[in-house]
Amino acid sequence: MSTLSVDGVTIAYDDEGSAAASVLVLVHGHPFDRSMWRPQVERFAADGWRVIVPDLRGYGETTVVPGKTPLETFARDIIGLLNRLDVESFVLGGLSMGGQIVMEIHRQVPHRIRGLVLADTAPWAETEDGRRSRNALADRLLDEGIRPYAEEVLPKMVAPSTIERLPAVAEHVLGMMLGTSPEGAAAALRGRAERPDYVESLEDAAAPVLIVVGGEDEYTPVEDARRMHDLIPNSALVVIDGAGHMPNLESPDEFNAALRAFLDVVSEGE
To answer: 0.90 exceeded by the pTM?
Structure first.
């Protein structure tokens, strides 16, 4: 684990693989940390990529900043980190909230992105009901702590069949959630309640796009992924059957195969 200070926030991150290799940046979701990408870091660093995975502000080992953290702030943190690491161009992927942060980074610096990986996420602006729900959940986390919420949503974060089939994965997911600061998670929820619409910028994306979704995902159903695939001209869609909201952990071999094929396409297209 390494750290760098960006705009007063100490960002914890892993940076594995050859410093001279092409760069793959992966952004975790809520309420997790960078360890959710361990199967991908190990695979693609061994395959010759430089893989960078940060903890977002408020999560993991990065500074907790209470209040409200908009997606654009998360995006600036990651861009600032990559600037400090002298990384100019990169393939960028994210899951759930991480995918929305990826869309915001793409909106800010599209010319630096060689390819986009959008896993179990959606580009549409938050609805009024969604705004109320996220702010209410933020209040709940500050009042109750993270455990009641974490235990409640575990069967939605990973498919119930995953909990039975791969208890170690379910324990990892629960452990990440329990290790998350309520203040950091609440700040992110309040920021996401105000998230903009990314449809227009994705429709104009010059880089190729991979959309991945778990076939049993309740948060971002397959139908949402199909809608996103339809609106992004240069996109591919992979549905991972039997997985819930975290296919990269629930079905890492299938997820990695889809990502490997996409990275090959990115490399061949340059």
So the answer is: yes
